[in-house]
Structure formats: C-alpha cells, structure tokens
Amino acid sequence: MKALRIVFMGTPEFAVASLDRLIQAGYNVVGVVTAPDRPAGRGRKLQQSAIKQYAVENELPLLQPDRLKNNTFLEDLKNLQANIQVVVAFRMLPREVWDMPEYGTFNLHASLLPQYRGAAPINWVLINGETETGVTTFFIDDQIDTGAILLQEKTAIGPDETAGELHDRLMDLGSELVLQTVEKIEMNTPTAHPQTENQELKKAPKIHKETCRINWEHPIAAIYNHIRGLSPYPAAWTVMRNGETTQEIKVYRVHPEFEEHQLPAGKILVGKEAMKVAVPGGYIRLLELQLAGKRRLKVLEVLNGLHLEKNAHMV
Q1: What gap in Å lies between CA 241 and CA 227, rounded to an integer?
Q2: What is the pLDDT of residues 155-211, one digit of tens each?
Q3: Whole-number Å distance between alpha carbons of 250 and 232
Q4: Residue 51 binned pLDDT confidence (cut-offs 50, 70, 90)
Q5: 209-314 in CATH: which number?
Q6: What pLDDT score was predicted for residue 49?
Q7: How far is Cα 55 from Cα 32, in angstroms, rounded to an integer?
Q8: What contacts 109, CB < 8 A, 6 or more positions away?
C-alpha cells in the first residue's frame, strides 16, 4: 500500500465534492491549488473560488498562482512533497506541474472520454440530445483530455434534465470516481488504457454568448435541447420584437408541444395563462423567463406586466 500525499487542484463548486470526499475518507491532502481571487458582480469585489472557501474552512495549505510556470509557484508546489495530484475543473497544466509527482496527475472529466473533450461537456451532451453520459478519470498528458483512462462511470440522461440538474448528479458521481481512483493508486492496482480515436468524436468547446442564442427556425427537439442544455447557466437567450421595441430575454424552462401548424417560426401566441412560440414541428411553451434587467420569473408573472402586440415575435 502506498502512503499518499495528495495535492488537489480545482476551482468551482463541481470540484468541492471531490475534495470533500477525499478529506472525509481520511486521505492526506497536503495542499490545494486554485485560481486567484477575481473581481465579480456589480461591485467588482474580489471573489474567492468555491475550492478556496473550502480549503480555508478546513485549514488546508493553499496556493493561488497567476501563472503555473512561475518559478516561485513551482518551488512551493515541490515543497509540498506530493506524490499524487488530483485535478477537477481546473485549467490546463504545463508538463512542469503534471509530471512532478511520483504517481502522476489524474483529472476528472464530466463525460465518457474520448467523447466531449473540452470545457463544457455537460452543456454539449444535452444540446446534442444525448441519452447517456458519465464521468472519467484519466492521467493528464500534453494535450487536452487525451490521457490514458483510469475509470469511467456511465449514467442515463433524463429526457427533461437540465444542465444544472445533470451538473449536480455528475458532481456526486465524479466525487465517488475520484475516491475509487485514489484507492486504486493507493493499493497499487490502477490500470490505465489509451483512449480510442477510431470513432467520430464530438467536442465540447467553451460556450460563448452567441452559442446561447436560440434559433427559432431549428426543429422543435433541437430548440428544446438547446434551452435545457444551457439552463440555468449561462442560459439560452433570444430577442423579442414587440411592436417597435426589442427586448433581450433569457429562457430557463420550457415545454415542447409537438403539433403541425402553418405559423411562421418565432410567432408568439399568448393565452390566459400561457405563452408559447411557434417553431417547426410544434410550439415551445415558455415556463420561466428573465427579461433584461429583471429577475427570473414564471411566465404568468411576466404576462401580468407585459402587453404584447399582435405582431410580437422572437427573432
């Protein structure tokens, strides 16, 4: 059995579950590496990462490098004398970092690699209408998400599951896989196999604002998957043209209604307690929205304060 000294690297809430699982299991986490504090919000106050908050609360040694090749950081990292590094939702590591510990550096990725390599796998599996995903641990190498696979765990995707809901499930599933991976390394029984490249690979690039814009001319199922795949963050959005005015709207929750009709795509229909948009193959019933400068609301609350012209439509 190996006596492990672990350095954990991560930033967002997704990573906290894995770090906490290791701490609760009694592993020796000798240091935590996370992003520097960043200004955020309207007041631009310095914001600590979720991992930093956890590390401070649990009195874990903490490093927050601006640059991962900085000599001071590399020396501080070396002085922690870790023999294994665990990475969850962090940034790309240079060789000087991932090659440092004796037993290597492994990463948790929220997809079934080699599918959906990249920054936003949870969003893209939903946007693409997948019915299955999972989590993977793998040894880090010079490329992004290409290293030898250690363990994988699959899970079915619910037909109405949102990115936020899937995020939380994969966070828990991933934390258990991280623990299992560390246990195998501790017992000297890890088996790693190369990723198979002889298949059509789907990517998971970073999500940008224009990625999130809804195209109401797409098929109804594609629009539905697009919206749930971006909910609640960063959120799908559209522009509503109402008479002479236009307004940007974020769309969080909808329901597809499959039905043939002859209405133009984007046409808004309003009933007593309903608001829906005509699309190819049916209607997208809007359930939760956020008008520019307002808070997120159920559609009934939106309709109470909104007068729609007959020609109102989404563009």
Answers
A1: 19
A2: 999 999 999 999 999 999 999 999 999 999 999 988 999 999 878 999 999 999 999
A3: 10
A4: very high
A5: 3.10.25.10
A6: 96
A7: 7
A8: 117, 121, 135, 136, 137, 138, 145
User: What residue has token string 């043939």?
Assistant: 260
Distance (Å, whole) CA 291 – CA 65: 38
Residue ranges, CATH 3.40.50.12230, the chain: 6-186
Averaged over 88-102, what is the pLDDT? 97
20 CB contacts (<8 Å, ≥6 apart)?
54, 175
Name the segment(s) of the chain with CATH classification 3.10.25.10: 209-314
6-186: which CATH number, 3.30.950.10, 3.40.50.2000, 3.40.50.12230, 3.40.1000.70?
3.40.50.12230
Of 28, 64, 67, the C-alpha closest to 47 is 64
